[in-house]
Task: structure prediction
Amino acid sequence: MIRDAITVSAKDLRLETRARVVLTQVMPFVLAIVLLFGFALDADTALLRRATSGLFWTTVLFAAVVIVQRSSAVEQQDGVLDALRMSGLSPGGIYLGKVTALFVQLLAVELFLGLAVVVLYDVTPTGIALLTVVALLAGLGIAAAGALYGPLAAGTRTRDTLLPLLMLPVMAPVLLGGARAFEVALGRGVGGGWAWAGMLGIFAVVYLALGTAVWGPLLEDT
Amino acid sequence: MTEVHTSTDVGAALTEAPSGVPAARSASHGSTGSRGTRILGVISLIGLAFLVVYAFVVSKADVELGESIRIMYVHVPTVAAAYLMLLSNAAFSVWALWKRSTFADLAAHACAEVGTLMLGLTLICGALWGRMTWGAFWVWDARLTTTALLFLMYVGYLAVRNLPASARSRTVRSGILGIVSACLIPVVNRSVEWWSSLHQSRTALGTLDPSISGSQYFTLMLGLVVFSVLSVWLVMHRFRLGWLQEQLDTHGVDDAIELRRAEAAQPS
Amino acid sequence: MDPVVDLRAAVVLLGRFPALAGVDLVVDAGEILWLAGPNGAGKSTLLRLCAGLVPLQSGSAFVLGHDLGADRRAARRSVGLLGHATGLYDELTPTENLVFWARALRADVTAVVSALDRVALIERVRHLPVSQLSEGQRRRASLAAMLIRRPKLWLLDEPHAGLDAGARDLVDALCREAVAVGATVVFASHESDRARLLATRTVTVSGGMAGVMSPS
Result:
């Protein structure tokens, strides 16, 4: 299964480097959101600085929906889904491969977003260790959930509108955990930032387990 | 292609339906009622009547919260009924995926619909109660926020159910979604509660947990029972509605096979 | 010897529609079977059934000894299906596609080059994204993907459609080579002239059932 995962993630990442969707579409989208939030909060720099953690993770979630849509759209082309079924790849391996590829793309987006926020909202990053761990765990959780919800909403005319509805409510814990932990790291929050990181880890593990278990029927029957 | 069936035809077809499902026998009248549901319906109605009496007349107003506590007699039962429905949905979803059972699939759908309805009612009652007690419809308290998220999750479930897709695809997708959503409930619950506890120090509101006793306690228990029975009654009707729909859809299969074969005899 | 394909009263539903309404079909090893019949007769569904891609509603289906009623994934590794779709990722090159599918199959990655050689896919095109290839070139690439699988049962849905004469000859040659090493070929086609020359036996499919015509 791990070998299959490596094969699939390599394929997905190669597709991404070829199509460069994250670079040319998602990152500008993210930048646009950062700017729009600035307008929405009337360029009140003090307010923006205070609200950075929440705005950061909200933006990540919106970007994640787009990336997940792209990831599942890739498999809808031209008979590729049938070919995957015939390929002998284990469904769990395909799932983990897609999670890995999503994870890498999300990390790239988070990094870019972090830079944007530091520059545009005048934030000084502190508590780098906590920031990094939380970014990794939250990214993993979002990827694990996205690789599961993508096919659930895929292959239908209403895919584009359905996926946000499926993904976003479920991501509330990630938003909570990420935002609160970032606040602690940036010296603004109360409570245990590392405890939130732990919760994010649990979220990721739950989704990884669920996804690996149910991807078989999902591949076959939808 | 197939002729329009009269209700007696439907009835006849349904009574021939395989597997000893009580729905088939009782639905022979072309409705979703039966002795079982009539009994449950009557119990619900009487129970509701009692509940109204107890809630408004017999039980005393609360020491701290005054008359507004009477909403609790609906608010708490609806959320309890909702959780009951959602857990049933999860169980039926597992069964539907495992055994490929149409019965379980339809039952899961019915439970999800009633559960979502109950969640919606909970939100409305909670908002009203908040308004009466604190003057604001929404104060971001943990339980109501969790309820709102769950409500959205299951609206999503219903949306997936209504996607245009083959029956098998629908069963698998919603079955998986039902299981995944149920697994997420505790995670969402915990994180929202934890987050809310960080806010406790900031507000003087606390949670809506009045200490109750005597007639209030009895009324609450009565409410729990009544709404549970009501939910089961709704589920049974909704399930049967789905079952009838399913029967109508599949009834033509044998005819369709014959017609298909007949194509072979025609010159192409 | 056991037949490669053994279908009895096989019924396959697509949604509510009985695409196959009770098919009886036996295919022995080494045959090249032509499925003839009008549009909408169920030929594509029949091929997909043999590939294990659609569930069996009733009846029995055995492919290469595997019971598709019990587990329709069992025979997939030994079967190759080539339909109207390419089964290739548009943004990757043919080489990259084949390497991916070969790795997925745990097949020999070095076989990729020889497969592309066999289908005579010109060198320049092997490193272009599939989206930039012509229809014929894409079909050749898909055939190469088939070759890598080394399937014991070839299922081809309209393999000649949209190809020039050279490519059609290639398809015929590959079928004959496959049979020569012990595989079996079942194909659906509207190109009667070519099909008649290629096939060792013909079966007509219509109304979701199969009837036998005289061996050609």
